[in-house]
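Troubleshooting log. The previous structure file for this entry was overwritten by mistake, so regenerating from the original sequence record. Sequence copied from the archived sheet and checked twice against the printout by T.R.
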Amino acid sequence: MVNFTNEQRIKLLERSKSLPKISQKLLAVWAKEQFNLSTVPAQSSVSEAIAKAKTFKSIDGVNLKSKKQRTTVFPALDRAIVNWVLHCESRGVRLKGDLIILKAKRLFELAGISKEDLPAFSNGWLDKFKKRHGFKSFQSHGESGSVDMDVVRTGRELLKDVTSQYPRKDIFNMDETGLFYNMAPDRTIASRQTEGVKQDKTRITIALTTNADGSEYISPLFIGHANKPRCFKKKTGSELGFEYKSNTKAWMTALFFQDWLKAFDRKMSSQARHVLLLLDNAPSHIIVEGELTNTKIHTLPPNNTSKLQPMDSGIIAAFKKRYRHRHMSNAVDRDENGEVNLYKVDQLTAMKWSIEAWKDVSATTISNCWNKVDIIGETVPVAAEVDTVEEELNELIRILDVRDPMTMDEFINPECEVIVEEMVSEAELISDKNLRAHLDCAGEIEVPDELDDYVIQKPIFTKSEKLAILTKAIDVLNDSDWFVPENDCKTIARLWKEKRDLRHSMQNTMKQLKLTHFFDKSNANIK
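Regenerated output below.
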């Protein structure tokens, strides 16, 4: 009898759901080929595997490699703790084991778990938590930004084993970066307000993706603050030809990443390609097993992306140099035209320049950056490239006569631009709608009242209630004791129009009563 792993059980369940009429004997044949089994498993093994997979309320907290059916009691809270640890790692924060235990206790208490249901939070619990999620160790000493070169060497060799199975054109790397698209190259106004002018750090986040030989540039994913910025002229990002998402912070989220990843996988599937995608361990890079058909994900070793990720080894810097070059050229033109705010551009212009800048990064530059990190077994020689962009950019800054110019590294890679995700609060961790939707005891856990602020529900009114509200609003604005400026007059006119339209709508939906209605004794108004 074959003892399937939890991951295989989930895949069997998904296969049976996608093909409802398939027999378990045919599923067994499919399992042999899919999982490289030596023999066709018995029908009873397939049946048992599917039955066990159905008990998983979600894959959160499931050890996919285990053959035993171990799950956490509170998978959503388990995932919340994981997200917090990953957020800390992405910020270079070194964690102690006892600090993770303390944070776990606080999250469980905040979620309203009763004391009798709380885990023991012992060292054994911590060891299982680390093993379940692949966390090797938590350092308590040493410099947070240091890189262990032994770990880098080990990680490089492991990556070479993985990448050796794919041609260079089918090995991709994606990474996000922030972009302060209005930023001036002046260090003085970057640090404090001077003469009424301060550094403009309006930002967008951009996800850039390319393959190892530089032959393919995936369209950038842009994340902005507004769904339809004013410069979009009431159009959506997709209508303007961009891959565009938005939230209040203009940061990457797990949902945005999932949408991007599925679209990337569909693109590879349409080309009949099976590719490798290298990603860092950012908190938003959450992979759902079984959803990808043509993309193999491999996560880079934590805290070593500066040494092993091609995007961090010069590709993003090359992109930003070309963006800043366009920005400074535009500033010189504005200066010659006598304009005051030299560095101000709208988001749409910044996105267009970003597309152009991304396409201007040469395949030679990209290949050299992949060779630099040395994570592909066979290094392909690439001719040296003379890049004059930095020299030209320095000349543009000189022409602008900046009072206290930044160094080129400060201007190309501002420290705050690397932050593309927020360090979420405890309340946000456990109130995330995706986590709360998967709580084992969703019907039993009482979420504290203060968390209700994170779940904003739009009130639903009947037409009659809306009509009463509009009438009251008009009465208030028409009050003779009020001073009604021009804006209020416009508001009153708009409210009157809405009230009139609503009345017409209500009249059109009313049914004409028959004469017999007024003589019907069953009518509540007839006594």
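The beta strands are 171-180, 203-211, 217-224, 243-246, 275-279, 295-299. Archived copy saved in two places this time.
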